[in-house]
Specification:
The chain is built from 17 helices and no strands. The protein has one domain. The protein has helices at about 10-45, 45-50, 55-80, 85-120, 130-140, 140-155, 165-185, 190-215, 225, 230-265, 265-280, 285-300, 305-340, 350-365, 370-385, 390-410, 415-445. It is mainly alpha-helical and about 475 residues long. The chain is globular.
């Protein structure tokens, strides 16, 4: 049930690991796509704008949860690569304790502050109630987010990228069914779409947990391994918090940008909401590459096979370039058709909405290769154990989006909003690419006696978790 990523051709290993991960992320995006399609077509542009206006704050909170879980999985991958199975299980147990703590705190905090946050974001009055109904339910489902993302991260750290896909496929079909039942049958509106998303992810997480208990003997723990360990919690937080904060810091810029877009009116909010859904689907391969590189680099650092790090990054970057070219060509041809997936043909403003959404999609697609490098290089750095660097990359993304939101959108309007995210990706790459070279050089300096991949067959000396941060 596990896979060793420390031996063999990096391109073949990365592609083999990334493809199942990609299918899983496509199913995960199906949640959001189905919600947007059903809301946009059945409830209208105002309802779609209500859901879309919450996108940045949704990413701020849920992104932190996902980043935290991804960071918790890195020490697991490193100890797996080093062959230290007892310590690996101890990290899994303590990651679960920490996830429970964070889930309770975040659910309570966001639930209490939800309305005030939407007011601060200048959410238009005509969509405020719908936005609140949607995002409040999403925040109440934070425990489900932690459950699935932590378990999926642990499974991927063991080298198994296929198993999470099966449960996501099941929950995606459940999500579609619940959307129709709650929105059409019970007239639950946008809240029904949110309930369907939370319930489906909860089912996915519980199914994943049941499967792990039965089929992963490598994770069966002793009482001592299950015990709360402050040192292990410290290592996990040292990896997880910077990754979670990186998402949240990035989202601060998105929130400021969203506030400026909200001031343009609900028509522009709906256009960006529809375009963002297309983005999320098209960017799934980049997310899969990032998740793959975190596991790949984590295992190879744990096994002290440092020569494989640069080779892996270069191989994955070539995959990112190839896909970026294909995606841009497809959007140049089919952007209006993609926009229509989320718009009601009966809308009076349909021609304007299609043009605005298509413009947003094409501009973003032209910068997909910088986006691919953001995911590939950032997650590689995190897999190496230099998770705090993610915060610096997030600061640059935040600065670019904040500048666009505060100064460019009020002057140049919608076009400036279209270029805000591409500018953020380029700024992050200007830091991440040299940072990755620094991280590899730092590891080589700290462990100069580690044999190369083609060197003598010596037993690798395991790196101490967190020692190089």
């Amino acid at each position: 049930m596990t896979k060793d990523l420390t031996a063999g051709n990096p391109m073949r290993l990365i592609l083999g690991f990334a493809l199942p991960t990609l299918f899983g992320m496509l199913f995960q995006q199906l949640y959001n796509l189905v919600d947007a399609m059903i809301v946009g077509k059945l409830l209208g542009a105002s309802a779609l704008a209500a859901v879309g206006s919450t996108g940045s704050i949704n990413f701020f909170v849920i992104g932190f949860c996902m980043g935290l879980c991804s960071g918790f999985a890195i020490p697991v991958a490193q100890r797996m690569g080093a062959g230290e199975l007892s310590q690996m299980r101890r990290y899994v147990a303590n990651a679960a304790w920490l996830s429970i703590l964070f889930a309770v705190a975040l659910t309570a905090g966001t639930g209490l502050l939800c309305r005030e946050i939407l007011i601060l974001m200048r959410t238009p009055a005509d969509i405020f109630d719908g936005a609140y109904a949607y995002i409040f339910v999403i925040f109440m489902g934070i425990p489900s987010t932690f459950l699935y993302n932590l378990l999926a991260g642990v499974i991927r750290s063991l080298g198994d990228s296929k198993t999470p896909v099966y449960f996501l496929a099941l929950s995606s079909f459940l999500n579609i069914a619940l959307d129709f039942i709650l929105i059409l049958g019970f007239q639950a509106g946008v809240a029904g779409a949110a309930i369907a998303t939370v319930a489906s992810q909860g089912v996915s997480g519980l199914a994943c947990l049941a499967y792990m208990v039965k089929h992963y003997p490598i994770l069966r723990m002793t009482r001592e391994e299950r015990r709360l360990d402050l040192h292990s919690c410290g290592v996990l937080c040292g990896m997880g918090l910077p990754m979670g904060l990186q998402y949240s810091i990035t989202a601060i810029g998105s929130i400021i940008l969203q506030s400026s877009v909200n001031a343009l009116g609900s028509l522009y909010v709906a256009a960006i909401a529809a375009g963002a859904k297309v983005y999320q689907l098209l960017a799934c391969p980049f997310d899969a590459m990032g998740a793959t590189m975190a596991t790949y680099c984590g295992q190879n650092v744990g096994a002290c096979k440092l020569d494989r790090l640069g080779r892996g990054i270069r191989s994955c970057s070539m995959l990112g370039l190839g896909y970026s070219i294909i995606a841009l060509g497809a959007m140049l041809l089919f952007a209006p058709q993609c926009a229509m997936l989320f718009l009601d043909p009966r809308e009076e403003s349909l021609p304007v909405l299609v043009e605005l959404t298509s413009r947003y999609i094409i501009i973003g697609a032209a910068f997909f290769f910088p986006l691919s490098l953001v995911n590939i290089v950032r997650f590689s750095i995190q897999g190496m154990g230099f998770s705090p660097f993610a915060i610096l990359a997030g600061v640059l993304e935040m600065a670019a989006r904040t500048g666009a939101g505060l100064w460019l959108v009020p002057v140049f309007g919608y076009t400036a909003a279209c270029y805000a995210s591409p500018a953020a990706w380029v700024c992050a790459d200007l830091f991440l690419i040299p940072a990755s070279a620094f991280c590899i050089a730092r590891l080589r300096k700290l462990y100069p006696n580690v044999p190369g991949e083609e060197g003598p067959a010596l037993q690798p000396v395991p790196l101490k978790a967190g020692a190089h941060r």
